[in-house]
Design brief:
Distance between the termini: 33 Å
Number of domains: 2
CATH architecture of the largest domain: 3-Layer(aba) Sandwich
Order of helices and strands: EHEHEHEHEHEEHEHHHHHH
Number of helices: 12
CATH superfamily of the largest domain: NAD(P)-binding Rossmann-like Domain
Strand order of the largest sheet: 3-2-1-4-5-6-7-8
Number of strands: 8
Structural class: alpha/beta
Oligomer: single chain
Low-confidence stretches: 1-14
Mean pLDDT: 91
Length: 286
């Protein structure tokens, strides 16, 4: 069946209408990224949020968008519908909006643990569904996002999804079975890095550095090390060896980290978050 698809080539900046079912911080970050990348305009965005959520409603109004408490209204006025509610609310929200959704719409869900199969079962037959997993650094356009295409999503839909999420960082298409592990690594990962930054700064303060300087140095060290991996494409082990002089201070520090199970603690954190994500997905099935 041929239909007029919403594609990255056929929709211009003034035409792409984006609706957010759920107007949380991630939704607002995505909306700002889409606008700054020239993919849409503020007045072409509509978001639904809880009537009590005045701060987030004002944030969407601040970028020129429409705010509503009616999920049907969001679906009715959008080419691309982004489901950005809490996972437990997804069935209710999609059931409410279902009659306004057709194969004309591209549905992108960023709800944790809600599978393509579950999304497709809640939507009209043939709905074009994409499941995406961004992370919170999307708020500063440094997100690490992945996405999975549903059974009716086209190559154009994949291209548009990639373009949308590249507006707030890096984005890659993956098979769905990797989503729980992605959640464990990049989805929850920023929290591990914040703990690392805090610990680095605490170490600096313990050794006499002023706290504000310690936080700046720690944060920039993490940013710089990440960029070294991405830009040089060298193995992290090679980059680590390049910093480690024989009998030097870095070698002493690395020995302390190995002695205290640093690697296994981080690996275990990714495993624990992955397993929790699997639990959430299973709970959503019932």
């Amino acid at each position: 069946v041929l239909h007029r698809s919403v594609s990255s080539t056929s929709i211009g900046p003034t035409m792409l209408k984006v609706g957010f079912l759920g107007g949380g911080r991630m939704a607002h970050a995505l909306a700002k990224g889409f606008i700054s990348a020239g993919l849409t305009k503020g007045e072409n965005i509509i978001a639904s949020c809880h009537p009590d959520d005045v701060v987030l409603a004002d944030a969407f109004k601040g970028i020129g968008s429409t705010v509503t408490f009616n999920n049907k209204e969001v679906a009715r006025g959008s080419n691309v519908i982004i489901v950005s509610t809490k996972p437990s609310v997804v069935p209710t929200v999609l059931t409410e909006a279902r009659n306004e959704i057709s194969t004309q719409n591209l549905i992108i869900s960023v709800a944790l643990g809600v599978t393509i199969k579950q999304l497709e079962s809640l939507l009209p037959k043939g709905s074009r569904v994409v499941r995406a997993m961004p992370n919170t650094p999307a708020l500063v356009k440094e997100g690490a996002s992945v996405f999975v295409c549903g059974s009716a999503a086209s190559k154009d839909d994949a291209n548009l999804t990639k373009k949308l999420f590249e507006a707030v960082g890096a984005c890659e298409q993956v098979p769905e079975y990797l989503l729980d592990a992605v959640t464990g690594l990049s989805g929850s990962g920023p929290a591990y890095i914040y703990v690392l930054i805090e610990a680095l700064a605490d170490g600096g303060v313990r050794m006499g550095l002023p706290r504000d300087l310690a936080y700046r140095l720690a944060a920039q060290t993490v940013v710089g090390a990440g960029q070294m991996v991405l830009q040089t494409k060298d193995h992290p082990g090679v980059l680590k060896d390049n910093v480690t002089s024989p009998a030097g201070s870095t070698a002493a520090a690395l020995y302390h980290l190995e002695n205290n199970g640093f690697r296994s603690a981080v690996i275990g954190a990714v495993e624990a978050a992955t397993n929790k994500s699997k639990e959430i997905s299973k709970a959503m099935e019932h």
